[in-house]
């Protein structure tokens, strides 16, 4: 069983983009996950294949039509498809490493990329879309956010990274940010390696790293410690 991603977008040419390179690109070639894109515009209305309209009640911008998006979803996703259907939007629930792990352990994801000022609320309800945000800032569309979700999922799919790398304590798995890393040279521009890292005492090194992780988390993300 592999992880299958279906992306609904008005810009299918943006994919695979960076996902075709490096770790995720190699995994794609190795068949550890798959990616298909569907163009929402194929379900647009009339000769001009319209997908959006002005907001009911007035206001600026354009809203993605519920009938168009529902038709695109229904054509791409069979009724017995068990994959969660995500809608990328800044008003969604913030993505966490825990949700990434859950998604990566399942059959894959369907991701709807929003554009314009939003999506008609009725299709969010009617097709049970899970609204997901990747952070408190606004992108011009959901495509890059969808890539972020997929990148985060793919790297934790079994077999994508070596055992050493995927098992190792990472930021957010332990609710601590990572301790500082160093490598050669021993001296650089007057800065030397912390003595403890040269001590060969692994208990002491572990203790130092834990304390550094706690200090950095306290400084930068005290919310993670609560
Ligand atoms: N679309 C636009 N901004 C977004 C964000 N911050 N997260 C997810 N999707 C988005």
What's the arrangement of secondary structure elements?
Elements: E1 3-9, H1 22-29, E2 33-39, E3 52-53, E4 63-64, H2 66-76, E5 85-94, H3 97-105, E6 108-113, E7 118-119, H4 121-126, E8 130-133, H5 143-154, H6 163-167, E9 187-188, E10 191-192, H7 202-220, H8 222-225
Helix pairs in contact: 3-5
The structure holds adenine (ADE).
User: Helix count, per DSSP?
Assistant: 8
| Helical/strand content category | alpha/beta
Please list the strands of the largest sheet in the order they lie side by side: 2-1-6-5-8
Overall body shape: elongated
Distance between the termini: 37 Å
Low-confidence stretches: none
Q: What percent of residues adopt helix (DSSP H or I)?
A: 25-40%
- Beta-strand percentage range: 15-25%
Overall residue-averaged pLDDT value:
95
The count of strands amounts to: 10
Main sheet characteristics: 5 strands, parallel
The value of Rg in angstroms is 22 Å
Describe this structure in words.
- By secondary structure, the protein is an alpha/beta fold.
- 33% of the residues lie in helices and 19% in strands.
- It has a 5-stranded parallel β-sheet, sandwiched between helices. The chain has a 3-stranded mixed β-sheet with strand order 3-4-7.
- Helix 3 (97-105) packs across helix 5.
- The longest helix has 19 residues, at 202-220.
- Bound molecules: adenine.
- Adenine (ADE) binds at residues 88-90, 114, 133-135, 137-139, 142, 145.
- Residues 88-90, 114, 133-135, 137-139, 142, 145 line the site of adenine.
């Amino acid at each position: 069983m592999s992880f299958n991603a279906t992306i609904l977008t008005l810009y299918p040419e943006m994919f695979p983009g960076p996902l075709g390179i490096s770790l995720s690109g190699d995994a794609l070639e190795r068949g550890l996950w798959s990616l298909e894109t569907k163009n929402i515009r194929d379900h647009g209305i009339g000769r001009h294949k319209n997908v959006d309209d002005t907001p009911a009640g007035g206001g600026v911008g354009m809203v993605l039509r519920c009938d168009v998006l529902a038709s695109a979803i229904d054509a791409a996703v069979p009724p017995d498809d068990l994959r969660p259907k995500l809608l990328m939007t800044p008003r969604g629930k913030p993505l966490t490493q825990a949700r990434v792990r859950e998604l990566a352990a399942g059959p894959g994801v369907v991701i709807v990329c929003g554009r314009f000022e939003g999506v008609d609320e009725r299709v969010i309800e009617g097709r049970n879309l899970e609204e997901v945000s990747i952070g408190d800032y606004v992108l011009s569309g959901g495509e890059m956010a969808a890539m972020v979700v997929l990148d985060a999922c793919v790297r934790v799919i079994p077999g994508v990274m070596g055992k050493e790398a995927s098992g190792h304590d990472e930021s957010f798995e332990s609710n601590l940010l990572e301790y500082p890393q160093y490598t050669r040279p021993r001296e650089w521009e007057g800065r030397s390696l912390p003595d403890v890292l040269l001590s060969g005492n692994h208990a002491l090194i572990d203790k130092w790293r834990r304390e550094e992780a706690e200090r950095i988390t306290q400084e930068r993300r005290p919310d993670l410690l609560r």
